Amino acid sequence: MKKSPQSTPAHSLNRKPAPQDPSAHRTYQPLSDPDIYLFKEGNHFRLYQHLGAHETSESGIQGTHFAVWAPNARAVSVIGEFNGWDPQLHPLNPRWDASGIWEGFIPGVLQGSLYKFHILGNDNNYKIDKSDPFAFYSEKSPKTASVVWNLGYEWRDDTWMKERRCHNSLDAPLSIYEVHLGSWKRVTEEGDRFLTYRELAPPLIEYVKRLGFTHVEFMPVMEHPFYGSWGYQSLGYFCPTSRFGEPQDLMYLIDQLHQNGIGVILDWVPSHFPTDGHGLSYFDGTHLYEHADPQKGYHPDWGSYIFNHGRNEVREFLISSALFWLDKYHADGLRVDAVASMLYLDYSRKEGEWSPNQHGGKENIEAISFIKRLNEVVYQNFPDVQMIAEESTAWPMVSRPIDTGGLGFGMKWNMGWMHDTLVYFSKDPVHRKHHHNELTFSMLYAFTENFILSFSHDEVVHGKGAMLAKMPRDEWQKFANLRLLFGYMFAHPGKKLLFMGAEFGQWNEWYHERSLDWHLLQYEPHQKLQQWVCDLNSFYRKQEALFTADFSPEGFEWIDCSDWQQGVVSFLRKVPGKDDPLLIVCNLTPAVRENYRIGVPLAGVWEEILTSDHRDYGGSHMLNGIKAADRQPFHGKPFSILPMLPSLCVMFFKRKAGT
Question: Cβ(213)–Cβ(486) under 8 Å?
Fold first, then answer.
C-alpha cells in the first residue's frame, strides 16, 4: 500500500496552493483504472466526481449515470419515479475490478428525478431501499428519496476567493457569528415558516455587516432526517438540506456573503451518523460504514452509529465530503464536531463497555490516523481555509502540525475558558473573589493551542439559560455583567465566536422551533447591548494588538491578575515589535473603585478609548477621559495611572501618540 506523506498543514496560511488537477472541478468523471487504484488503496478524495448520480450522455443520449459502493450486495438496482419504483427494471452491474462499486446508465433520467438504490444482501431476506450516500440533493423531509441534480452555478466571489487567505489567517481578526438557519428568523405571518437560503441572504448579510462580524458559522446545513438534531445527525454528506431550498440557493447565500466580505464556516460531523433505515446504516446488508462491534460502532449518548474510521473506503467517503463543501460550496472552513468522541475509545462509556486498542490504551488509533489524514488532505488542496476542532479534553497539540506530533487542525474551540468564565460570571459578585482563579486560569494554557473563544449554542440550551439570564442580580447589573463579559472576551487572546441572540440579550433559551426574540429590540437595554457588540467588533478589527498575536505569549502581558479581593484584573495586549500596547482593565464587582492605581509601561497620557460603562451601551457614564502617567512605579512598571473603575465595567486605554 502506498504510504501517505506526512506533510504539515498550512497553519500560517502563507504557503502556495498545491498543484491542482485541471479536472478537479468537473461534476462527473467516469471511473478510470487510476481512480480504482486510488480508491482501493484509500487515497481517492474526490469520489463525488464519480459516485452517486450524474447527468451525462452516452451514444448521444441524455440520461444519468449511477454508481454506488455496496461490496457485499447480491444485487443493486435503481428505483424511482421513472420506473414506477420497480427494482426489476434498472439493475446496476458490478464492476469487474473487485472495487465493490455497482454502476449503470439510465437514459432519459434527468435533473429532478427522484431515486433510491434497491439493495439485495447476501442474506436472501435482506431487501432495502437506500438513499444515495453521494446524492447532491434530497426530497424535503420527512420524505427520503434522493434527487438527480447538477451543481452548475456561476460564482461571483472571485475577489473574496483570491483574498480569503488574509481573512482566514491566524493573525487576522476573526469574529464569528454562529447561526442556525431554521431559527434565526422566520416568516411569522406565513405559519412561522423557514426563510429559504435566498430569503436569508439580504437580512442576514445586512445584520452581520452592521454588527461587524467577520465570519458566519452555520450549524450543519447537511441533510438530516430529524430537524430537532439541529443538523448534527447528518446523512447528507454531499447534500444540503432541502428544508431551505435547492443546492444553488445555498451557493447563492454563500456567494452573497462572500461578495459582502463575510466568510462562511460550516459545521461538519465525521464522527457519527443516525440509524435511520434509509441512510448509511447496514447499507448493503453488512456493517459497511459503521463498526460491527457495538463497543466501537454505537454511540450511547446520541443513539447513533460511529463511522469505521479504519476502513479505507469510509475515510475516503468522509474526506471527499470535506473537500466537496470546500470545492463546490466555497466554504472557508469546517468546524469539525465532536472530535473528543473520536479520540477516545472509552468516550462516554463505563468500564467493560469499551475495548482497548492493540497497545492496551484508550486512544482510538484508527480515528486519530483519520483526523490527521483529513487535515493533511484539506490543507494540501485548500491551504487558505481553516479546519477547526470542537474538542473538549486536554488532548495535546490539537492545532499543531502533524509532523511535530499534532492533529493538524488550524484552530480549536477553547471549551475550558468557556466553562470557567461562565462559572465565574454566573456567581454573585460578592462571591467572585473566591473564584478569581477561574477567571485567570486560562492564561496558563492560552498559547498551547490556536484557540477560538466560543459562546456557542451549547451554552444556551437544555436548562443552561440564555447568556443574559446567566448573569446575576437585577436587570441593570445583568446587562452590565454581559457587556463586561463580552468586552473581556474580545480583550482575551483568541479568536471570537458568539451564538445568535446573545448579541442583543435574549432572555429565553434558544429553541430551534421558533425565531429569535427580535421584538426585544424595541426596548432600550437590548438595543444598547446590541450596539455594544457592534462597536466591540468595530474596535476589535481596528486594534491590531487584539488579534495579530492571539496565539503567541508575546501578544499578552498581565499587569495585575492577583487583586481577587477587589475583583479587578488588568493586562496589556501588544503587537510584537511595536511599543504601542493596549491596556485593558476589568472591574468585576458592582463597587466603584476611585483612584485605582495601575502600573503602565510608558510615560505620557493614557486615553480611555472604549468603555462598557458609556451611556450609549446602557452604562452609568462614569468616564475617565485621559490620564497622565505618574512617575510612580507600580505593578513592576516604571509609571502608573489612577483611573476610576465604574462598577461591572471593562475599559480599554491607549497611550496618546506624541505624549
Answer: no
Regarding whether 624 and 574 lie in a shared domain, the answer is: yes
Q: Quote the CA–CA distance of 590 and 161 in Å, as a whole number.
A: 47
Nearest to 324 by CA among 236, 226, 196, 234: 236
In contact, 373 and 303? CB cutoff 8 Å: no
Instruction: Produce one character per residue of 306-315: b if its CB has 16 or more CB atoms within 10 Å, e if not.
Output: bbbbebebbb
Where residue 42 sits, what CATH number does that domain have?
A: 2.60.40.10
The Cα–Cα gap between 370 and 365 comes to 9
Measured on CA atoms in the order 479, 484, 487, 488, is the torsion positive or negative? negative
Please tell me the predicted confidence (pLDDT) of residue 30. Answer: 87
**Cβ–Cβ under 8 Å, residues 193 and 186:** yes
Q: What is the overall mean pLDDT for the chain?
A: 94
| CA distances in angstroms from 623 to 485, 584, 644, 655, listed in the order given | 19, 15, 8, 16
Of 535, 556, 532, which Cα lies nearest the Cα of 545? 556
- Let me know whether 383 and 493 are in one domain: yes
Q: How far is CA 301 from the centre of its chain?
A: 21
pLDDT greater than 80 at residue 9: no
Whole-number pLDDT of residue 647: 98
Could you say which of 496, 519, 546 is where a domain stops?
Answer: 546
Q: How many domains does the chain have?
A: 3
Higher-scoring residue by pLDDT: 615, 191: 615
Position 23 scores a pLDDT of: 39
Quick one: which of 381, 407, 403, 385 has its CA closest to 44? Answer: 381
Is 514 part of any domain? yes
**Could you give the residue numbers annotated as active site?**
337, 390
Q: What is the pLDDT of residues 342-360, one digit of tens each?
A: 999 999 999 999 999 999 9
Closest to 580 measured CA to CA, from 553, 598, 607: 607
Which H or E run contains 104?
strand 101-107
Quick one: pLDDT at residue 11?
42
306 three-class SS: strand
Residue pair 476/461 in contact (Cβ under 8 Å)? The answer is: no
What pLDDT band is residue 658 in, cutting at 50, 70 and 90?
Answer: confident
If asked whether residues 123 and 264 sit together in one domain, one would say no
Average pLDDT, integer, range 360-374:
97
Closest CA to 181 of 249, 122, 260: 249
Domain that holds residue 122: 33-147
Render pLDDT for 124-166 as a digit per residue (tens, 0 to 9): 789 999 999 999 999 999 999 999 999 999 999 999 999 999 9
The whole-angstrom separation of Cα 584 and Cα 654 is 9
For residue 193, give the 3-state DSSP assignment: strand
Beta bridge partners of 186: 194
Give φ, ψ of 334 to 5 degrees.
Answer: -125, 130
- The string of pLDDT tens digits covering residues 54-65 is 999 999 999 999
Of 272, 268, 180, 178, the residue nearest 228 (C-alpha) = 180
How far apart (Å, rounded) are the C-alpha atoms in residues 150 and 579?
A: 55
Q: Which residue has the cell 415558516?
A: 193
Specify the 3-state DSSP secondary structure of 117.
Answer: strand
Task: Give the model's pLDDT for residue 634.
Answer: 97
Whole-angstrom CA distances from 397 to 68, 351, 369, 403, 412 are: 37, 27, 14, 11, 10
The pLDDT, as a whole number, for residue 175 is 98
Exposure of 170 in the CB half-sphere (CA atoms within 13 A) = 24
